[in-house]
């Protein structure tokens, strides 16, 4: 869809019209191809709140990445280092420590697919330590 326009010399200016069309088309393509990040909120309690110095962290992942509980924990381990990892994982086996509960939107990850549970944009992952009382 090109329009011939008359330039100042009276000649049709197809080239300028094509440039305008191509730049508009490129701009539209750039807007349509911008990837949306997926966000998950992670809530920390007790010792993890001390380690992270936060009550909550919002992590972003590319839309095309499969965001699971395992990928969230890996990212948090990279971000907060050894102290976080030692609190969450068994040193010898690398497995999650059994005393921690992981809730996705208030439901235990055990009722989903464990560490392989795929998280959606806007989900909340809470890492809950044991609660004592009496």
Task: Provide the fold topology.
Layout: H1 14-32, E1 37-43, H2 46-52, E2 56-62, H3 69-80, H4 82-88, E3 101-104, E4 107-108, E5 124-128
Parallel strand pairs: 1-5
Antiparallel strand pairs: 1-2, 3-4, 3-5
Helix pairs in contact: 3-4
User: What is the CATH architecture term of the largest domain?
Assistant: Roll
Q: Helix coverage percent of residues?
A: 25-40%
Distance between the termini: 77 Å
Please tell me the overall pLDDT.
82
Radius of gyration: 25 Å
CATH 4th-level superfamily of the largest domain: Beta-grasp domain
Based on helices, strands and strand pairing, what is the structural class? alpha+beta
Number of strands: 5
As for the number of domains, it is: 2
Principal-axis shape? globular
What is the string of helix and strand elements?
HEHEHHEEE
Give the number of helices. 4
CATH class of the largest domain: Alpha Beta
By CATH, the topology of the largest domain is: Ubiquitin-like (UB roll)
Strand order of the largest sheet: 2-1-5-3-4
Unreliable runs: 1-5, 17-33
- Largest sheet data: 5 strands, mixed
Write structural notes for this entry:
The chain has helices at residues 14-32, 46-52, 69-80, 82-88, and strands spanning 37-43, 56-62, 101-104, 107-108, 124-128. The protein has a five-stranded mixed sheet with strand order 2-1-5-3-4, with no helix packed on it. The chain folds into two domains: 1-34; 37-128, Roll (Ubiquitin-like (UB roll)), CATH 3.10.20.30. The longest helix has 19 residues, at 14-32. Residues 1-5 and 17-33 have low confidence and may be disordered. The protein has 134 residues and is of the alpha+beta class. The chain contains four helices and five strands.
């Amino acid at each position: 869809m090109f329009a011939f326009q008359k330039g100042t010399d009276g000649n049709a200016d197809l080239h300028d019209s094509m440039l305008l069309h191509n730049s508009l088309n490129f701009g539209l393509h750039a807007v349509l191809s911008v990837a949306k990040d997926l966000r998950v909120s992670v809530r920390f309690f007790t010792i993890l709140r001390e380690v992270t110095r936060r009550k909550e962290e919002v992590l972003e992942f590319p839309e095309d990445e499969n965001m699971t509980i395992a990928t969230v924990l890996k990212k948090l381990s990279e971000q907060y280092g050894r102290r976080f990892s030692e609190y969450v994982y068994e040193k010898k086996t690398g497995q999650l420590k059994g005393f921690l509960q992981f809730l996705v939107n208030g439901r235990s990850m055990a009722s989903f697919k464990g560490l392989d549970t795929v998280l959606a944009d806007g989900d909340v992952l809470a890492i809950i330590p044991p609660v004592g009382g009496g």
